[in-house]
Amino acid sequence: MNETIENLKSLMQKGEAYFQTASPEKIEKKSDGKWSKKEILGHLIDSGINNLQRFTEIEFKPKPFPIRKYMQNELVIANDYQNAEITEILNFWLSVNRQIERIMAKQTTKSLKQEILLDGSQIETLEFLMKDYVKHLEHHLSQIFS
Known about the structure:
Elements: H1 2-21, H2 24-28, H3 37-57, E1 65-66, H4 72-79, H5 86-105, H6 109-112, E2 115-118, E3 122-125, H7 126-145
Parallel strand pairs: 1-2
Antiparallel strand pairs: 2-3
Helix pairs in contact: 1-5, 1-7, 3-4, 3-5, 3-7
């Protein structure tokens, strides 16, 4: 888990540096009906919120813990990230991920083996879910940086 945590920290640093220096035109530009870079960051906030809830609730719920999907596109629209101040959404994203980092750091070998249920049938572990969260973050940050 230490490698995953270090990767998360590195991604937060890179994301923060990018958004602190990128021009508004660059981060707000939309093309082909796809999310702007600002909206991708907003999606990462929504992902962080949903995963933080998952990472903390698993401790108290029956196992395997069912992973509920969330409405990604609808949340980006509802939260109107495109019209939000970039410093606000950047700080929100950083705060959520710092809390996720703390939750990851407190996990034990035993707690990381807690079972989750994906798509109603696939059994995985909390460790898988945490690593997958960071991979998802990395994927979307590479979209932002391109």
